[in-house]
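Self-study notes.
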Amino acid sequence: MESWERQVGESARAFEAAQIYFHMGAQRSLSAVAQQLTKSDTLIKRWSRKFNGVERAACYDRHMGEVEQQKLEEEVQAQAEAKAAEWIERLGKLREAEWKAAQEVLKRVETMLKFPVEAQEVRQDGDKKIVVIMPMKWRASDISRLLLTYSKLGRLATGAETDRPGSIDFSELSEEQLERIAKTGRL
């Protein structure tokens, strides 16, 4: 039995007075309890002495402090969980956007690879055939940069490592190496 609960031998009226006293908090006084219950100060003081009213009130205060602290901690925890849920949702939306962007980059690369790096035009100059080779507006290095972007966006979207040990750094390759990769798929 907790000290702020009804004690053995404590009458209902004496316990009512104790509860009023407990709930008064910092303004508690036995005289105020007596006034509220229209009882004599002497009776209220006797009940308080007999049932350790001051000590019980201190225990009640500690208990209520613990209850309030627990409530506050639960509210803080709930707020933290709600904020975490918001960020998880935001992360999900960001990953989805990164995944869509990665797929768009891949589509662009696939479209670029369907066309040659250069265009040839055959012109006739009298008896001579002249083959004019015109470079396209993109280079193999453009594809490599797009593939890197695709890879990074895709890895970000799936939560994978973005810096992979042993992976090829396309920015370090020459134009010839990049063109070879674009044509053959190999270094």
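Second protein, same conventions, sequence then structure:
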Amino acid sequence: MASQIVHFARLSDRDQKTATPLPKLVAGDRLELHVRDAGGKERTLPIPPSAAAAVEALLAHMLREERVAVLAEDQEVCPSEASAILGISRPLVVLRMDRGDLPFRYVGKHRRALLKDVLTLKSKLGKRQTAMEALAEDTEDLIETYGLSSACRGLRRLRPLPLPSAKHPDPVRLRRSRRGALDRRYT
């Protein structure tokens, strides 16, 4: 299946002022679309009840000044389209593909991922973001409750140990030799 361009649409300012939200549909309600062509001929198209909820949601999002795109779940998207959906950069999408977080296939030299896989990843990222925000909020509460901020100020910034090299195969010895050199310099 060929990838289609993801096109986001939004209401113009003029349409925003004139459009009204759909009333909440209940069982038995029918939704019809009235179309008037340039010649003035009018046609009425019935909207099936299963599609009425989608139309209602589409219009509600557009009235909230959100950009909207309608896509098929089994549609394939390229990394740049996936990045627009996920709200992250294209190189990060490619990294997620290489890691196995986002399944994909090659079409020639080009990567393609299923939209449902992209939406699954978006859901996972959303859950992870929510958990991180809750953790940050808990940490702020602990700092305020127990006064940990003053204790944290006294801690020095820890530096990672250097990797072993031919000159200094043991990182602990390297750290000791640095400390000794510093001690000798200031004594």
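Instructor comment on the second fold: Residues 181-187 have pLDDT under 50 and may be disordered.
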